[in-house]
Amino acid sequence: MISERKEDEYINTFMKESGYPMDFLNMGLSSLSRKKVEELRKKCDKLREEIERYECTHPGDLWLQELEELRLELENLYPGQWELHPGYGTKEMVRPK
Questions:
Q1: Are both 47 and 5 inside the same structural domain?
Q2: pTM for the whole thing?
Q3: Residue 72 sits in which domain range?
Q4: How many domains does the chain have?
Q5: How many CB atoms lie within 10 A of CB 40?
Q6: Which of 13, 38, 42, 96 has the least C-beta neighbours within 10 A?
């Protein structure tokens, strides 16, 4: 007989190796309607596409994308406090006086 702890470890290992989100383990059986299953399949497909995109993208390009996302977020948080940095085509934050 498999101990409960070993069974939990086996299930967790299986879920991770299979690429299934761990959220599946926290769901009650009553929530597994056809609609929910389709929603989870779409979520899983989207995550697989994202993983593939990350695997096919150079780390430097990911870094530049994240910097651009940060810049846009800062621009939304602090509107009007950004100016074009001459010669670079990027924006940099203006220090308040």
A1: yes
A2: 0.43
A3: 65-97
A4: 2
A5: 17
A6: 96
